[in-house]
Specification:
Radius of gyration: 16 Å
Helix content: 55-70%
CATH class of the largest domain: Mainly Alpha
CATH topology of the largest domain: AhpD-like
Distance between the termini: 6 Å
Order of helices and strands: EHHHHHHHHHE
Number of strands: 2
Largest sheet: 2 strands, antiparallel
Strand order of the largest sheet: 1-2
Strand content: under 5%
Number of domains: 2
CATH architecture of the largest domain: Up-down Bundle
Shape: globular
Structural class: mainly alpha
Length: 182
């Protein structure tokens, strides 16, 4: 069954190509986190271990690096907004759960999922959502940086917003071209 509604519930993802059933040592190391071997998405990407390794290290640095910058909740919000804009139901569900968990603002996250990226949000979240979607829609401008800065974000936090949005713009397109939510 294909899942088309945006949700914070945990859903599955079904690849259109057969993922690897067993991984060699190089492919296992490329996962960075061995638990990812349970995911058909990562087993599919393991066909090219060098790229999977670089992709995973980049993802981890953007979302798990706590050395200053944008708080984790807003990084996850950026990923959720981009995923909602791009129609990636699976990624939106994953990152919406993280955004809710780290922010404790489940209703605000759900409003983004239900009503879309133009749904009302408080000013900081509005600036993060708008900048993330603009980057995805190729309409990002200095005004987005100014809006983020007006909400108190420094250069590192603005960079984190851009990196989270850019990474998920790419990740959504990859995931949407390889399978579907289920």
């Amino acid at each position: 069954m294909t899942f088309t509604a945006f949700t914070q519930e945990q859903i599955g993802w079904t690849p259109w190509l057969e993922p690897l059933t067993t991984l060699n040592e190089e492919q296992e190391e490329a996962l960075v986190d061995k638990a990812r071997a349970a995911s058909p998405y990562f087993r599919l990407l393991a066909r090219d271990p060098a790229i999977l390794h670089a992709r995973t290290k980049t993802d981890n640095d953007i979302f798990y690096n706590a050395d200053g910058g944008l708080p984790r909740a807003e990084r996850e919000l950026a990923a959720t907004a981009v995923s909602r804009h791009n129609g990636c139901v699976f990624c939106a569900s994953v990152h919406a759960r993280f955004a809710s968990h780290y922010s404790k603002r489940t209703a605000d996250v759900q409003r983004l999922l239900d009503d879309g990226v133009s749904a009302p949000q408080e000013p900081l979240w509005r600036a993060v959502v708008d900048a993330s979607v603009a980057l995805t829609a190729e309409s990002f401008s200095p005004s987005h940086v100014e809006a983020l800065r007006a909400e108190g974000l420094d250069d590192l936090a603005i960079l984190d917003t851009i990196q989270a949005a850019a990474f998920f713009n790419w990740a959504n397109r990859l995931m949407l071209s390889l399978g579907e939510p289920s």
